[in-house]
Sequence to fold (733 residues):
Amino acid sequence: MAITGDDVTLDEIIPISYDFSVFICHYKGADTQVRVTFFKEELELKLPFGSHTRLFLSEVNRAWSGKALCYDKSYYNIKLKSEVRDDLIRNSQPILSNKSQMLGMPQFGLRDNLIKCELLKNEDAYTYIENYSFFLGTYNVNGQNPKESLSPWLASTTTPPDFYLVAFQELDLSKEAFLFNDTPKEPEWMLAVYKGLHPDAKYAFVKLVRLVGIMLLFYVKVEHAAHISEVEVESVGTGVMGRLGNKGAVAIRFQFHNSDICVVNSHLAAHTEEFERRNQDFKDICRRMQFSQDDLTLPPLTIMKHNVVLWLGDLNYRISDLEVDHVKDLIAKKDFETLYNHDQLKRQMDEEVVFVGFTEGEIDFQPTYKYDTGSDQWDTSNYKVLNITMESKKKKTRQKHKNFHILKGQGFQFQDMKFMQHQAKTVTVYNDGQVPCQFEFIPKLDEPSYCKPWLTANPAKGFLAQGASVDIDLEVFVNRTTAPELNSGQQQLEDILVLHLDRGKDYFIFVTGNYLPSCFGSSLSTLCLLKEPIQDMPLETIRELSTSQGSNPETDKPQEIPKEIWMMVDHLYRNAKKQEELFQQPGLRSEFEEIRDCLDTGSLDSLPGSNHSVSEALLLFLDALPEPVIPFSFYPQCLECCSDSSQCRQIISMLPQCHKNVFNYLTAFLQELLKFSAHNRLDVNILAPIFAGLLLRSPTKQDSTEKRKVKEFFQHFLVQTPSDRDIHYKSPE
Fold:
């Protein structure tokens, strides 16, 4: 698959003229087969089912501009010379599926909006509801291959279901799958599912989405496929740094008739005591999972913006506070109600911490974890707690905002913003006029976007019927991209939003705030010059140090390494040398915030939080550096000599002093960790890609070849030589 422009070559150009034609075969619910012909030339294209394909074909149609084109009522306005294959031709007539889509199409004028408002008032008169059956199945396969038929599971119902959504976790546990998201087990399990579908119905494959070992397959009865549209997929990793895909979620959203449906398969954090991390994973998935819309000017759709949400997967919530023998006794008695009352997920839902508004399917089966591998024997390692893998049908209920603000003359202030801290305020816009209106946040003069990159408004555009209101969330979030300029004082938390009303006036919303400087997003050279925690330093001093190119004449010589790096590495060196899954299992967000505050204020002599939280904080620190440990200017040289160990070491010797010190310090620490591999199970193939991509970052997006060269470069430094620097730096003064 082409990832960047470097992966694509231009073989030939086919002009769109009178001698050009397009043959389109729509597989119901599946990818689109396109045959392009020009004179005797012929090109077969397989286009993914979704908005990008529709955009491509509509652009072809537009470019054609009526040349040799016969119009009909199809979506693309191309007369389809269709080849019928197994009667799986997809009807591409668009469906206005819900109110948000109907009222969000900007090409409609005032008269059209009035008509739509009247239609919506009488919606019940021309709509009706039908029930359909969904088979939702989830299977953590523990990296195994399919060894037997899945029919007893997938075809267990008397009546064939209308939809199949089959979820997998831990599809492949190999390092290659973890690092490069590539696995041969995907087609194996896909074939096993296809063969196991209910024999009394014919099904069309719609979509597959996978993130490392988290996979979701979507099949539908052939007779329903014509009514499916707007199929989109997305994925979110919640592993270390919120990116790695060993944990996270994949999702498929689609429209069926006039209903928006979103199906989520998630694999949340493991271990009994980590229920707070599971809660955090759920919230991160809900916040970060966003689907683009056909109209790219419209804001993306989040999970909760759909009419129906179905959530399944290995949620990893455990049965707690019961001994294993008692659990087995309750299972033997089929006393699932007592077990369910000790389920962490139920308790978190009862406290409305997660899955608010969702309804869980009835638990009428025994816990599915943990058995001895490949048997029906309960786990003989005598676990004290058991994990339930949930197969749940869940539906969404709409939440109402509790905070209301009047738009006119209103300003919003965000106090004491911190790195990777989210704050939101709500403004309510009310249409008290006599006609509907459309609103949209528009860019100010000579600015590319309607707001600064640390600010978002959701929704950024929409439609209001007379007497209606809408809540707009103003969200501020400072990340690794925006933190450096805020730390150095080059940017401030100040912006003015222009809310434009179609055929009306503009309103101005003032957003202000203050940002507390952080070591996260500050340069190595600046941090080496700081003698006090960054939040104890005057802002003007931080600005001066951030812009200076050398040492500050008013201070002593720079520290060898930033004390913040020393504190994190020293903590891990003393406490985590034998820690399993180090740098692979994420920590808690709340603990990261405590670690960040400790580093920025110097409030504690030792770092709080678990080893996993400290290790993730170290990775986030390196990721947020405005100039990486190996500066961008050295990147091409590093790739060129990646296979030559001596040349690689020569490049490191030429780094600026503080950068060289940090590089040597970190590699010495990683070498120490590898000495304890029998306990922590770390090896070079795990550590190299994680740290290589942080210490040697590309100024542009990397392709797969560059990633492999970066890994090869860094591997030379994980093999200890007599000249390597020792880990035992003294504490910075």
Summary: The longest helix spans residues 657-674. The first strand starts at residue 20 and ends at 26. The chain has a mean pLDDT of 81.
